[in-house]
Every structure is written in C-alpha cells, then in structure tokens.
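User: quick one, sequence for these tokens?
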C-alpha cells in the first residue's frame, strides 16, 4: 500500500482508538514534533466531522420526505 494511505489508515485507527498502546504512544510522540502529521490529523478530523454533518442532513431530508408522504 502507498505510504500516504498507510498514514491515513494509521491516523484513522488512532482516532477510533484502534491502535495498541505502544503504537498510540509512538503516534502521539510523532504528532508532538511533526507538523505534517498534525495537519493530516486535523484534516482527517475535519473530514469525519463533515461526513457526520452530511449524514445528518441526508437523514433529515429522508425523514422530512417520509413525513410528507405520511401526513400530506
């Protein structure tokens, strides 16, 4: 797998608390001194937040459509 994808996967596992303790500590140490990893982590957090918001909006639209079908 490409190194960029491995980094994304590692950050994803970190955010989901799916890393062993040793790997978590190594990643946290790397985040302390590596600005690129800090940026990548911030971007990944923003991406997850955007997906959650988009999912909620989609659910609202679907619920509104169901409500209109049932009560219109």
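Assistant:
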């Amino acid at each position: 797998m490409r190194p960029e994808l491995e980094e994304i996967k590692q950050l994803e596992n970190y955010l989901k608390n799916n890393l062993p303790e040793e790997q978590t500590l190594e990643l946290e140490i790397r985040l302390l001194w590596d600005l690129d990893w800090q940026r990548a982590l911030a971007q990944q957090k923003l991406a997850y937040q955007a997906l959650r918001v988009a999912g909620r909006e989609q659910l609202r639209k679907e619920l509104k459509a169901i409500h209109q079908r049932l009560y219109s």
